[in-house]
Amino acid sequence: MSDAVEVVRELSARFQAGDREGAFALFHPDIRIVQPASLPHGGTHVGHDGVMAMGTRFAEHWDRTITDPGIAAYGDHGDGVVQVTTQTWTSKATGRSATVDVVELLTVVDGLVTEIRVFPQDTSSLGATLA
Fold first, then answer.
1. Which value, to the nearest 10 degrees, does the dihedral of the CA atoms of residues 86, 20, 114, 68 take?
2. Checking DSSP bridges between strand 97-109 and strand 80-91, what pairing results, if any?
3. Could you tell me what percentage of the chain is helix, strand and coil, using 3-state DSSP and rounding each to the nearest 5?
4. Domain boundaries defined on the chain
5. pLDDT grade, residue 68 (50/70/90)?
6. Nearest-CA neighbor of 3 among 78, 55, 87?
7. Does 3-128 carry CATH code 1.10.287.1080?
8. DSSP readout, 47-110?
9. Verdict on whether the full-model pTM lies above 0.90
């Protein structure tokens, strides 16, 4: 198993345990997270401050549960990791929820996550929970 996979497993475990500070310690200072633009928290978020702002925007709209993380290496350079989870997003405004699979492509360099590209299965169903 690659070191990059171990970093992502630890990141997932820290987030699941509610250890946000511990999870952020695994982010490179210039981390880049790309979310679908069709979501209220979408776009490209850079650095710890950018990730915090993204999380704040997400939390204004939804509560979320994450289950069944599948984590594996991908690519030829040893720094790519794919994580697939099942996520249920519940709108704070309407109480409606949607459950989707989410694929995340992560890059790990020198033990730190430098990039996460996020691909929810169905952004339309997630957005519909808000209306």
1. -20
2. antiparallel
3. 30, 45, 25
4. 3-128
5. confident
6. 78
7. no
8. HHHHHHHHHHHHHHHEEEEEEEEEEEEESSSS-EEEEEEEEEEEETTT--EEEEEEEEEEEEET
9. yes
